[in-house]
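Per your request, structure below.
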């Protein structure tokens, strides 16, 4: 079996295309669907087993495409016939560029094209470092595309509604244009084949089979990206697409090499789901040899396995199977017999930028929620789980609001847990504004041994980001050395919560002097004295609230970079600049400093400003004072 994945922007017709190609030679096999992620359709084409994976649209779902593309022999980027929509394909093009998986661009709905095909190719080329090779040119009648001319075979095909295209003679009016386009194609292919180059130099006409062979090599090595035309809705151009995949997509050995470390990968995860009353279900692809239940995979025995085509309990090399009772397998990984292997970096999800605190609607579900989230994380590598340090509740980090809603739906449907959501508050801090010297005596007598400790401290503000520092200048043993660490521990206790309820940071505490009692002094007494002394000194010194500032890196198509300036400024951020991405064609990296309080607003504003194509990651950089009501960059 050979496997290919269809990805592309929403509304480009991916699902229609997948269903259409799966039905070319008859009825497709039983579909395997993971709600909100995608569908696997097994089918037969020219007596060979195939499977097409239709990934749900939306850039939030792009992070789920990594494992499926990694497991595939080839990928098809489905785009609309509109040059102005090329930027919507940029994130998908970037994934395929980084993956080095053999790829084909399919321009869908060409019968209602909004732009010239050459304009569409040029617009897409902006985001592709490999040359996009136009393999067909449109056949027009009265300004409308009614078929195509194949530039290698030099055959013209006229579309028929819902039926295979008809072979016709190339119209005389198109001969010159076809010749020019074919010469451009041959010159491009000749860059990758010396024999073809020699024939062109000597003005000899290459054999069609030789041209196809060169085209196959360039696709399999991902040297070029061919572009094909058609309309899935009307079943036009599908046979040409499938024949290209059949001749030019490599077999499973290429995927095995891509995912193996030392050639040892025997399987890889493709999709996963949590099924009620059954547990975790993971679709795996057999990369090397036959895979069956009971085989060792990732150092444990594989549980039940069902081939998606035959229904048998073993899967042939290259095939897809559904594994159950194999909890040691997780999505986002490949597997050898002995170990779990990491997928390449390009197949991993983007940093989640939609964060919410989640709490169960019913208190009885508190313990169950933690376990359910862990189980969901095993089937969804794009999901991350954290803990709010103040409330102790779980923080759910998703790719966006739609991904977040899908996770809540799974919690409700698969685990019977309803949750309430809340915005994650910014991790505010406070610090003192002036130095203070303070004395505190801790004394307590209640029968028996008492408690006595006397400390004199200096407390002072430190520069932003320098943290806490404790030292002592005690002389003459006024405070015995064995008690000094207890004073330090008390100071740390006191700084956990300042007058405004936030942790106190960037403070220096010096133990200057003190007194002890030979009987009543103890570690506990000096810890209590240190804690109270620092707490009172902080109140005397006065504090200001600090807000966290994040350094944000926004990955954005270059066409939108300039538009981010007012976006960041409107969120009270500081622009650091932007520059072209080091390897992603047509992309910039836009850097800024932004208050954490603007984190959620950035996600929403960014989606509208870039038509959902950009994403960002953020790391804590420093704290700064809040100078005005609310949280603003200062």
């Amino acid at each position: 079996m050979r496997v290919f994945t269809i990805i592309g922007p929403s509304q480009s017709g991916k699902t229609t295309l997948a269903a259409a190609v799966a039905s070319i030679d008859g009825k497709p096999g039983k579909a395997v669907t993971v709600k909100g992620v995608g569908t696997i359709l097994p089918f037969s084409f020219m007596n060979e087993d195939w499977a097409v994976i239709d990934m749900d649209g939306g850039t939030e779902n792009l992070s789920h495409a990594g494992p499926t593309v990694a497991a595939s022999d080839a990928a098809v980027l489905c785009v609309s016939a509109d040059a102005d929509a090329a930027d919507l394909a940029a994130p998908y093009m970037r994934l395929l560029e980084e993956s080095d998986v053999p790829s084909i661009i399919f321009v869908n709905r060409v019968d209602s094209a909004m732009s010239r095909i050459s304009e569409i190719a040029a617009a897409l080329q902006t985001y592709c470092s490999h040359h996009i090779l136009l393999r067909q040119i449109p056949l027009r009648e009265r300004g409308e595309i009614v078929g195509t001319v194949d530039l290698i075979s030099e055959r013209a095909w006229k579309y028929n509604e819902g039926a295979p295209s008809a072979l016709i003679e190339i119209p005389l009016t198109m001969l010159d244009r076809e010749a020019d386009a074919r010469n451009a194609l041959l010159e491009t292919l000749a860059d990758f084949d010396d024999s073809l180059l020699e024939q062109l130099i000597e003005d000899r006409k290459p054999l069609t089979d030789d041209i196809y062979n060169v085209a196959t090599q360039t696709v399999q090595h991902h040297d070029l990206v061919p572009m094909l035309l058609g309309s899935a809705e009307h079943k036009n151009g599908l046979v040409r697409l499938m024949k290209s995949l059949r001749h030019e997509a490599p077999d499973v050995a290429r995927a095995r090499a891509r995912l193996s470390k030392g050639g040892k990968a025997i399987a890889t995860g493709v999709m996963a789901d949590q099924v009620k009353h059954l547990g975790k279900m993971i679709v795996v692809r057999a990369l090397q040899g036959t895979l069956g239940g009971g085989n060792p995979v990732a150092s444990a025995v594989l549980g039940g396995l069902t081939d998606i085509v035959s229904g048998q309990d073993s899967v042939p090399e290259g095939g897809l199977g559904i594994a159950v009772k194999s909890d040691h397998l997780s999505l986002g990984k490949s597997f050898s017999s002995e170990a779990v292997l990491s997928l390449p970096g390009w197949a991993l999800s983007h940093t989640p930028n939609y964060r919410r605190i989640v709490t169960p609607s019913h208190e009885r579900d508190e313990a169950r929620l933690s376990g359910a989230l862990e189980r969901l994380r095993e089937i969804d590598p794009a999901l991350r789980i954290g803990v709010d340090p103040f409330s102790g509740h779980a923080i759910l980090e998703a790719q966006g609001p739609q991904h977040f809603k899908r996770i809540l739906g799974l919690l409700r449907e698969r685990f019977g847990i309803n949750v309430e959501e809340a915005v994650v508050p910014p991790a505010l801090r406070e610090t003192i504004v002036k130095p203070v010297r303070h004395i505190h005596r801790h004394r307590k007598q209640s029968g028996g041994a008492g408690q006595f400790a006397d400390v004199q401290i200096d407390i002072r503000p430190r520069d932003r980001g320098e943290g806490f520092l404790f030292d002592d200048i005690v002389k003459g043993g006024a405070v015995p050395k064995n008690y000094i660490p207890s004073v330090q521990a008390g100071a740390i206790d006191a700084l956990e919560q300042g007058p405004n309820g936030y942790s106190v940071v960037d403070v220096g505490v010096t133990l200057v002097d003190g007194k002890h009692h030979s009987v009543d002094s103890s570690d506990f007494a000096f810890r209590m004295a240190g804690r109270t002394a620092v707490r009172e000194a902080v109140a005397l010194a006065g504090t200001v609230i600090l807000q966290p500032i994040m350094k944000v890196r926004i990955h954005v198509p270059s066409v939108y970079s300039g538009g981010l300036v007012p976006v960041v400024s409107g969120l009270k951020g500081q622009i650091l600049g932007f520059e072209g991405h080091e390897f992603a064609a047509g992309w910039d990296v836009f850097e800024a400093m932004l208050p954490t309080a603007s984190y959620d607003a950035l996600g929403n504003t960014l989606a509208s400003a870039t038509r959902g194509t950009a994403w960002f990651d953020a790391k804590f950089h420093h704290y700064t004072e809040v100078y005005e009501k609310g949280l603003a960059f200062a």
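The longest helix spans residues 523-541.

Regards,
D.
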